[in-house]
Amino acid sequence: MLTSIKTNRLTNKGQELGMMYFRVAIILFGAQLLMGLIAAIQFIAPGFLFELFDFSVARMVHINALVVWMLYAMIGSTYMMLTDETGHEGVALGLGKLGFWVLTAAVTVVVLVYIFVQVGPGKESTIWLINEGREYIEAPRWADIGIVVVVLIFYFNVFATYIKGKKTGIMTVMVANLLALAGLYLAGMFFTDNISMDQFWWWWVIHLWVEATWEVFVGTLAAYALIRLIGAKREVVEMWLWIEVLMLFGSGILGMGHHYFWIGTPEYWWEIGALFSALEPVPLIAMFVHVLYDWGKEQGIAAAKGEPKSVITNGPAMAWIVLNAFGNFLGAGIWGFFHTLPQVNIYTHGTQFTAAHGHLSFFGAYATILIGMMYYGVQKAYGVKRMKSTFKSKMGIFLTAFGVMGMTIALTIAGYEQVLVERAELGGTWNAFFVAQNLPWYVQAQLWRMIMGVVTLAGFVYLVWDLLTIGKEAQEAEA
Ligand code: HEM
Ligand code: HEM
Ligand SMILES: [Fe+2]
Q1: Handedness of CA 133, 139, 140, 144 (dihedral sign)
Q2: 3-state secondary structure of 387
Q3: What is the reported pTM?
Q4: Among 194, 232, 403, 453, which residue is least crowded by beta carbons within 10 Å?
Q5: Per-residue DSSP letters for 80-123?
Q6: Following DSSP, what letter does each residue of 240-281 receive, concatenated?
């Protein structure tokens, strides 16, 4: 992944830009995990780094790094496929490169401020210079504006290239969806001191990203990847994609109501949120079936032709994409459905159950497929026809997936205990919160979460090691 900076076999600037975004993404992913571990240790030893690097700060950097690395990897993936899908060399990519450097410089400053300044006095200057205080998207106002400018450049690259090049179904969905995705960011930018109104709009970014526009993005990536990695038929893949898009938007947009149960919004959101969010797992099942069906079909056709060899041209990328199919369905679909009805959510809201779902869904639905795209980028950068999984690839995928699943199970148990003791038995009082936090089920679950976090980190180390070496190894093997 690194050596390819100089010796890459990429055929155009778009793909080079894609690799640049991937490199920053993986570094931020590492930072995210380290911050998560600090926060996890603080659950067990609350005095750890107290007043030096408090839980609130570690948690904040953990989830902001998460969102930023995923956006980086999404922009990278888009640049990666842009020139390929449109058959055009790309419009104004030099400007895109400038945008990359501006964004990366801004992100570096923001992260340094998060780490060293941490908090402000809560005045206008804090919002402008330090931290906006909106969970997941805490970038200060100056950076917000910078992000909007860079995203406009990025979108111009994509849109202008699309207009000039071939207009495939995948690219059409991509271009329309990116407009919605980028536009929604604006909903999280203006300031109001009414907390209900603030949350109302903030969810437009968070929910309408992860449960609508990001999911559609995953649909387009999976469609593209299936064509490239196993030679799936474009007509079949694009037909699936349109159905998925319809179902994702059909359930995801009003599904937002499941965040409007307890924040002071009108009560009709209970019914709307319950009904539409309960439908959200349906497209995730469709996406799951789609990936496995196409894979089985292509392999079956090859076998019928008497070609017993695997149809997969990039082993690790395909492994991560298949993991995505499972992870998206489990983390978002199942773990999301668990607590999406108001009758259940009244007990689970704000317990570790939410965190269990947050981990499995972000990892399962997004981390997986974006890592798959990184492997695809590495294959292109080294110009190899077939890239097989190595021992390191397998350890990377196994340990991270096992670790995240372990954390999810531990947090689910902690959440279950909170529901029973804190909410049902003791009535959700202030005191009940502390009683529940000190019982063995909770304490042990937090310990297991930390252990599984270390397992995840070990997987990440293998993953990075593999990304750095697999391309060269495959190149040598092919030669
Ligand atoms: C990949 C898609 C998804 C991701 C990344 C995701 C992530 C998250 C995260 C991080 C939270 C916690 C937000 C906070 O800080 O308050 C959350 C909350 C929630 N999610 Fe999801 N989610 C996804 C899909 C779904 C789906 C499909 C459903 C329902 C079927 C669902 C149901 C919920 C509910 C009900 C809550 C509110 C929990 C509470 O605070 O009581 N999610 N989600
Ligand atoms: C080394 C592994 C990790 C550890 C130890 C860890 C630990 C933590 C901790 C302690 C929190 C704060 C929970 C709270 O406020 O109660 C947190 C929140 C969160 N983490 Fe992680 N994490 C890890 C990896 C990940 C990964 C891989 C993802 C997703 C790709 C992720 C996504 C999140 C999300 C979305 C939240 C907010 C959840 C919510 O408030 O509902 N984390 N993590
Ligand atoms: Fe949601």
Answers
A1: negative
A2: strand
A3: 0.97
A4: 194
A5: HHHHHHH-S--SSHHHHHHHHHHHHHHHHHHHHHHHHT----SS
A6: HHHHHHHHHHHHHHHHGGGGSSSSS--THHHHHHHHHHHHTH
Distance 359 CA to ligand 1 centre (A): 10
Task: Report the amino acid identity of residue 9.
Answer: R
Atom of ligand 1 nearest to the CA of 63: 10
Amino acid in the structure at residue 325: A
How far is the C-alpha of 170 from the C-alpha of 393, rounded, in Å?
Answer: 28
- For residues 32 and 69, give the distance between their C-alpha atoms in angstroms, rounded to a whole number: 9
Q: What is the pLDDT of residues 261-282, one digit of tens each?
A: 999 999 999 999 999 999 999 9
* Token pair of 374 as six digits: 């990184």
For all residues of the chain together, what is the average pLDDT? 95
217 — phi, psi (to 5°)? -60, -45
Q: What are the CA-CA distances from residue 17 to residues 22, 61, 83, 98, 166 (Å)? A: 9, 26, 11, 10, 20
Give the pLDDT of residue 308.
79
* pLDDT tens-digit map of 342-371: 999 999 999 999 999 999 999 999 999 999
Q: Is the pLDDT of residue 402 over 70?
A: yes
- Closest Cα to atom 41 of ligand 1: 349
Residue 423, pLDDT > 90, answer yes
Count the neighbouring beta carbons within 10 Å of the beta carbon of residue 128: 16
Asked if the model's pLDDT at residue 453 lies above 70, the reply is: yes
pLDDT for position 12: 85
| Nearest-atom index, ligand 1, CA of 273 | 35
- Give the whole-angstrom CA distance, residue 319 versus residue 237: 18
- Ligand 1, CB cutoff 6 Å, lining residues: 135, 210-211, 258-259, 277, 280-281, 332-333, 336-337, 339-340, 345, 348-350, 354, 357-358, 361-362, 365
Q: Which pLDDT band holds residue 312 (cuts at 50, 70, 90)?
A: very high
**Geometric angle at alpha carbon 363, from 18 and 222, rounded to 5°:** 55
* Structure confidence at residue 3 (pLDDT): 66
Residue whose structure tokens are 């950076």: 143
Q: How far apart are CA 203 and CA 54, in angstroms?
A: 26
Other CB atoms within 10 A of residue 125 CB: 12
Backbone φ and ψ of 122, nearest 5°: 80, 25
Site of tokens 């990304």: 467
